[in-house]
Amino acid sequence: MGASSREQGAASNGVMGPSRAMQALHALMERVAASDRPVLICGPTGAGKEVIAQQLHRLGAPGKPFIDLNCGAIPEYLLEAELFGHARGAFTGAVGERAGHLQMAGAGTLFLDEVGELPLTLQPKLLRVLETRQYRPLGSSENRHFAGRVIAATHRDLKTLVHEERFREDLYYRLAVFELELPGLDARREDIPGLIQYFCSLQPRPLTFDARATALLCQRDWPGNVRELRNLIDRIGALAQSPLIDCAALQAFLEPAQHSPQKWANLAEALLQLDGGDKLAATENLLVEHALQRCKGNKSAAAQLLGVNRKVIERRQKLRADKRLAVERYLAQGRLLIEDADFRGALPVLQKGLQVAGEVFECKDLWRLQFELHRLLGVSFRSIEGWLSDTSQASYRSALALAAEQGTSDELSSVQFGVWTTQLMSLDLGKARATAQDMLQRAQLAGLSALRIEAHVAMANTLFWLGDFEESLACLNRGELLSEYQPDWPQTQGLDLIGLAITFEGLAAFELGRFAQARHAQAQLTARAGQTDANAFNRAVALQGAAWLAALLGLQPDLGALARELEQLSACHEFSFYQGVGQILRGYHQGLEGFYDEGERAIADGYHHHVLRNGGQLFHGFQAWKRAEVLLLAGRVREALALVNSALDLAQDHQERAYLCELMLLKGRGLLAAGEQDEAESALRNTLSTALTLGNVPARLRTGLELTRLLQRDGRPEQAAQVLERALRGIEADCGYPPAQEASDWLARLRR
């Protein structure tokens, strides 16, 4: 098929066209159509959202029913019956059974137009249909199965409605498994000629627009989008005297253009907002590029339109080409510096690239270079200033704005990793999980290995901090990111994703009682940290994981050496966050060695002056656990209890459950040390139940031992045996974790 035939075919449904935005949308639709998951179509009124839904239906469920329901056009008291149907006698006037739209859709498509208008009372009922595929007609006691697909559309900003509590957040995420953004007509003017031709073909008599009339329509604003254009052509088709429409005939149907002084003032103000320092040069570049577009690249015609010599345009084009090459060189140099962990050296190079890029206006695909420059600046500032760096976030926002403006999902996905890290480190775990889920969906659609890896690492990391250790490991397995796969991964985030994935494999495995897997991960990270050819930042990531796991597994000599090396390496290279983690782990090791005061001060200083300042609250639970342990060893019971209570409040507020059980156990131990035996017993029993619920094996073993000692001292050996049996359920004594063997020995003595 030739290019012109493809363009005509793309426009044949009245909305699709040859513009880059619509072709990208059509390609995405072809991939989405094969799934039966819900789709949310967003776009302005009149842009053609229903046509997109029908096209999706034809691609995915040809020959099956397409049932549409406008959620804003039916009164609330009737909408539920329309959607679910009703049984006879369900309400006054229900003289017979009536099928609802869900039943009529069958295995086809239910299209919910203007879903943002759906009443709040009906939203949980629709959510249940999406979650369970079951619904119940009004007045009926029988559940029915929904076998079709839901496609929803809205011109409203559902995220804003969620924030205003006018739309359920869980329903939004259920509907937006795949989200399609349909641009307005002003954002895809190259589609207008094909749309004119298509709408002319629908008229009862032949209708043709000449080239000048078509060009005039392409230049006008279309606040009503495709619907406004179609209505205009329908009026012309019915009222025009001649079937050939030229500019003179067209003007009779158009509102007169306004050329008031205010309009020219607005135009001048808009030109002053152009990027770059030299606004006159930017304006000239804008005019040259626009003239070339109008003249389909013909330089002589563009020069004539502008009233200048052809050489002027050629000089401008050569200057843009030279500057583009310079931008590419700065970007390549910045990438190499980041790969060597020279983040400070990369900053001026990337900033110079952006400066030169700002001097080039409307150069084809230059936005991709600008996007990558902003993204890598975000990576560099993040690595130097910490996870919550304001300058890093500003760079990420600039990159996101460019990707959103161009309507591409691949670039959006690549910068989402930076957004996710900020949410995670701020303990905004709900948003972090939603971002990771969005990354997974975008990666699936894009089919790119780098995005898939980043998304699975992000989700596994988030799930760990939420306390879902089993699902965290399963996520790494689904992404083929466990250490057994030995993958060769791309590094696009200035961060060793291999080391990060192995770290969370080991951490999750430890909490689940898979101690051999955790020790294997710790050994791998120790080996990675010793690779002298690795850059310093990647070594810091590996050292953090190795020392962290050494602390959990009780590898005391390894912990001391690894923590000191992490602290020294990070201080040398100004990785302040990792310096703080090293200091926390080094302080814990000092406490275990009997240097209680020095160890406690080191943990507090490392957390407050390095981790909290440069990385956020994510490590609050872990550092509070280890610091409180040292305080208890030092006999500073009340200080330990105050610290644990504060950490528990923070963990509960943010749903951070990774070290919840450890903090609860320390509270029980602290109460026991304070002589409050009854309160301690209650706290320890609560901890054991929580550990069993979360699947936290180490915490349940240590809690079982602590509770057993208390019960044995109190003369309740039978209860002590029951506690140990509960704590040891499903765990082998020789699993390689000392508390398991100790609990097994205790139980054997109690049974004698």
From TrEMBL:
Matches recorded under InterPro entries: AAA+_ATPase, AAA_lid_NorR, Homeodomain-like_sf, HTH_Fis, P-loop_NTPase, Sigma_54_int, Sigma_54_int_dom_CS, TPR-like_helical_dom_sf
Lineage: Bacteria, Pseudomonadati, Pseudomonadota, Gammaproteobacteria, Pseudomonadales
GO molecular function: ATP binding; sequence-specific DNA binding
Protein name: Hydrogenase-4 transcriptional activator
Alphabetical keyword list: ATP-binding, DNA-binding, Nucleotide-binding, Transcription, Transcription regulation
Pfam families (alphabetical): AAA_lid_14, HTH_8, Sigma54_activat
SMART domains per record: AAA (SM00382)
Location of the Sigma-54 factor interaction domain: 15-238
UniProt-listed GO biological process terms: regulation of DNA-templated transcription
Highest taxon in the source lineage: Bacteria
Source organism per UniProt: Pseudomonas wadenswilerensis
